């Protein structure tokens, strides 16, 4: 049986202020995709609304715009995947072994309250699959409840983009909320690296999370190891 991964990307292209663009942080997808591809996993892209997933401009500049990101943008077939992502209603969770939430500040807007993504996440987790996120992707786990009504993140160790990193990235005045604080309020045991912007991952059973863009490859590798 082929192992199947569902990669989640955003549909949002700007902050509350439309003059400030955002979107998918491309390398968070491409690093994970490369790891999963090397393991022979079959991959699908889904987004909260289906359709195009815009790219975060800052992810297309040095040093973020690396070999994998450049190769993706140079490949028309790969770029087409981001133009025609599936919507949650088109996904049967029973067919997937893991869900991987990518980041970029845009996901803070459309991931948390997507009932479709919550349904998929809950079903994959409860059927024994792996739930994973990198960077701001953990915003997609904020409001997901299990069948017993409990929050998936409550009482679990995890990580994601830290408030300190928001400040250092100079977007703390642009983001709609403090994701780190929101996670703590939901009972999650938030962890982070001693230094900002270095790779850091947390594994709590079948929940795998990475702190920032530098963590995408390691997060995917830990997902693959569980699978």
Describe this structure in words.
The protein has eight helices and eight strands, in the order E-H-E-H-H-E-H-H-E-E-H-H-E-E-E-H. By secondary structure, the chain is of the alpha/beta class. It has a six-stranded mixed β-sheet. The protein has a two-stranded parallel ribbon with strand order 5-6. A hairpin with a 2-residue loop joins strand 7 and strand 8. The longest helix has 13 residues. 48% of the residues are buried.
Q: How many strands, which pairing sense, and closed or not: the largest β-sheet?
A: 6 strands, mixed
Low-confidence stretches: none
CATH class: Alpha Beta
Query: What's the mean pLDDT score?
Result: 97
CATH hierarchy: architecture: 3-Layer(aba) Sandwich
Helical fraction: 25-40%
Shape: globular
Please name the CATH topology: Rossmann fold
Summed up, the helix count is 8
Could you spell the SSE succession in H and E letters?
EHEHHEHHEEHHEEEH
Q: Say how many strands there are.
A: 8
Structural class: alpha/beta
Secondary-structure topology with pairs:
Layout: E1 4-8, H1 26-38, E2 42-46, H2 67-73, H3 76-83, E3 98-101, H4 107-110, H5 115-126, E4 130-134, E5 157-158, H6 163-168, H7 179-185, E6 189-190, E7 201-204, E8 207-210, H8 216-226
Parallel strand pairs: 1-2, 1-3, 3-4, 4-8, 5-6
Antiparallel strand pairs: 7-8
Helix pairs in contact: 1-8
């Amino acid at each position: 049986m082929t192992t199947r991964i569902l990669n989640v990307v955003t549909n949002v292209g700007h902050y509350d202020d439309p003059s400030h663009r955002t979107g998918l942080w491309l390398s968070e997808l491409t690093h994970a995709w490369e790891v999963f591809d090397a393991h022979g996993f079959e991959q699908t892209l889904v987004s909260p609304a289906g359709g195009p997933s815009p790219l975060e401009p800052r992810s297309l500049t040095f040093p973020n715009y690396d070999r994998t990101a450049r190769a993706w943008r140079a490949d028309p077939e790969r770029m087409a995947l981001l133009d025609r992502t599936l919507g949650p209603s088109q996904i049967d969770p029973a067919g997937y072994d893991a869900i991987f939430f990518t980041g970029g500040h845009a996901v803070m807007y459309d991931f948390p309250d997507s009932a479709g993504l919550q349904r998929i996440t809950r079903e994959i987790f409860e059927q024994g699959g792996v739930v994973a996120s990198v960077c701001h992707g953990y915003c997609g786990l904020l409001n997901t409840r299990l069948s017993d009504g409990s929050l998936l993140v409550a009482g679990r160790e995890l990580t994601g983009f830290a408030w300190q990193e928001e400040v250092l990235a100079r977007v703390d005045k642009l983001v709609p909320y403090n994701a780190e604080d929101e996670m703590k309020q939901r009972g999650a045991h938030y962890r982070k690296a001693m230094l900002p912007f270095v790779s850091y991952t947390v594994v709590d059973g079948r929940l795998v999370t990475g702190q920032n863009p530098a963590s995408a490859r390691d997060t995917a590798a830990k997902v693959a190891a569980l699978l």
